[in-house]
Design brief:
Elements: E1 3-4, H1 5-12, E2 15-17, E3 23-24, E4 26-27, E5 37-40, E6 57-60, H2 65-71, E7 73-76, H3 80-95, E8 108-109, E9 114-115, E10 120-121, E11 126-127, E12 132-133, E13 138-139, E14 144-145, E15 150-151, E16 156-157, E17 162-165, E18 170-173, E19 176-179, E20 186-188, E21 193-194, E22 199-201, E23 208-210, E24 215-216, E25 221-222, E26 227-228, E27 233-234, E28 239-240, E29 245-246, E30 251-252, E31 257-258, E32 263-264, E33 268-270, E34 275-276, E35 284-286, H4 295-305, H5 308-324
Parallel strand pairs: 4-5, 5-6, 6-7, 8-11, 9-12, 10-13, 11-14, 12-15, 13-16, 14-17, 15-20, 16-21, 17-22, 20-23, 21-24, 22-25, 23-26, 24-27, 25-28, 26-29, 27-30, 28-31, 29-32, 30-33, 31-34, 33-35
Antiparallel strand pairs: 1-3, 2-7, 18-19
């Protein structure tokens, strides 16, 4: 399979400097690209790789146009990484094999479920009673959509995703736990992508809500009654506890944790491995973890933390003496 450079530019735009009839047979990073591949430069720190790259053509920004043209062919665009993302979709649509089955024969779909005629349901999927799958949505193999859950249009759910398992709800009673039935569902908007083996729990009384454009990575846990605003993105192994609310256009780095019943405003960005222990009501970038260190040093610092409250009171007493000029 090959695409002409001219055909790529006709489909995606950009300013081509080079032969439009050059055939591209693969996409590759700068350092491994061969003479029949197309690559891209999206970050200035990699520009040292540009001159030595064997790529047939490189996608670059106007800032790197001169260097790229000295090397060879290039496509100049305002946002190379965005252009590359669109190129990958163009490439896949041109090279993917045709589907043998829109709904795989091994899928189990309840008669009372509603699956749009354009949806794709992979092998061993389960769609339970009352569930809804929207237009052009794809469920990869082994996806489970539980009773009464709704998935919007143009969504992609990767293998092993579970939508609508019971939320973690139990009431203590004399040393044992009694189950609280989870009576809500899950409602997922349009253009949502959910990574492999991620779980989104159904609500206890009201629905768990995932808004349009949200992206969830692999192995993410979304607790019951959580709400995630439009176009937020959560990286792998993020955990969001029950009834937390995450605003629109937020990002959570891998392994971050949001405790239950907290709120994150729109445009809040949380670093990887951080633990959010309080609501964050102002946009910004937040980090909350103890830096890694050798174990002996970490143990000493951890022990010191236990005395911070005492040290704080001593500092306050000293400041009062100093600034009020009181006798000791």
């Amino acid at each position: 399979m090959a695409l002409r450079l001219g055909a790529i530019v006709e489909a995606l735009g950009g300013e081509l400097h080079g032969d439009p009839d050059t055939r591209i047979v693969a996409l590759a990073p700068l350092e491994t690209a061969g003479p029949d591949t197309l690559s891209f430069l999206s970050h200035p720190k990699y520009r040292g790789l540009l001159a030595g790259s064997q790529a047939a053509c490189v996608i670059v920004s106007p800032d790197h146009q001169v260097q790229a043209r000295e090397r060879g062919s290039c496509i100049v665009v305002a946002q190379p990484y965005l252009y590359f993302s669109r190129l990958t979709r163009l490439w896949k649509s041109a090279t993917q094999r045709p589907l043998r089955h829109r709904i795989h024969p091994s899928a189990v779909i309840d008669p009372e479920a509603r699956v749009h005629a354009s949806a794709i349901v992979g092998a061993l999927c389960v769609i339970e009673r009352g569930a809804t799958i929207g237009a052009d949505t794809e469920l990869r193999s082994r996806v489970t959509v539980a009773e009464d859950c709704h998935i919007g249009e143009r969504c992609l759910l990767h293998s092993g995703v579970v939508i609508g398992a019971d939320g973690f709800g139990f009431a203590p009673n004399n040393g044992v736990w009694e189950k609280i039935e989870q009576l809500g569902a899950v409602r997922i908007g349009n253009d949502v992508e959910i990574g492999a083996n991620t779980c989104v729990d159904r609500g206890a009384l009201k629905d768990t809500l995932i808004a349009d454009g949200v992206k969830l990575d692999n192995l993410v846990q979304i607790g019951h009654n959580v709400e995630i605003g439009a176009h937020s993105a959560l990286a792998g192994c993020v955990g969001v506890a029950g009834s937390a609310r995450i605003g629109a256009h937020c990002t959570l780095g891998g392994g971050a944790i949001v405790l239950g019943h907290l709120e994150l405003a729109d445009h809040v960005h949380v670093s990887a491995a951080s633990v959010v222990t309080r609501s964050i009501l102002q946009p910004g970038h937040y980090t909350g973890f103890f830096p890694i260190d050798s174990n002996p040093a970490w143990e000493k610092n951890a022990a010191s933390l236990k005395h911070l409250s005492v040290l704080r009171e001593r500092v306050r007493s000293l400041e009062k003496i100093l600034y009020n000029k009181e006798p000791p």
